[in-house]
Amino acid sequence: MTISSEVKIISGLEIFSGLIYLIYFSAFYSPIFLIMSIISFIIAFGLLRLYKWAWFLCLLISLFGVISGILITIIEWYYIAISAFPKIIIDIMVILMLLSKDVRKEFKI
Questions:
Q1: Which pTM was predicted?
Q2: 8 A C-beta contact, residue 29 and residue 36
Q3: DSSP letters along the chain, please?
């Protein structure tokens, strides 16, 4: 079983997101950040094993990230937008890679 570079990149971005959520958890002690961190690590593992549920969950969470990031940018334009903008771009890149023909073929979707 060979894994394409796109899937490896998406998995790496999920691991990176999990680490960011762990940093947020250590700063704010909010259990939601710990839960999101665990979910990100599970998604990364599932993507590397080419599980369909990981593809769907990653797509769902990335779509939620784009929508919530845009809403946050509209509501709190200056301060939050600067920190939300890179996450929006990363989520859009993940969505585009997940919806690419090669990645869908690899996950048999």
A1: 0.85
A2: no
A3: ----HHHHHHHHHHHHHHHHHHHHHHHH--HHHHHHHHHHHHHHHHHHTT-HHHHHHHHHHHHHHHHHHHHHHHHSTTHHHHHHHHHHHHHHHHHHHHTSHHHHHHTT-
In this prediction, residue 80 has a pLDDT band, given cuts at 50, 70 and 90, of low
On the question of pLDDT at 1 being above 70, the answer is no
| Amino acid, res. 39 | I
Q: Is 42 exposed, middle or buried (0-12, 13-18, 19+ CB in 10 A)?
A: middle
Residue written as token pair 């094993």: 49
| Residue at token pair 């919806």 | 99
DSSP string, 2-19: ---HHHHHHHHHHHHHHH
Nearest C-alpha neighbor of 65 from the set 46, 43, 86, 42: 86
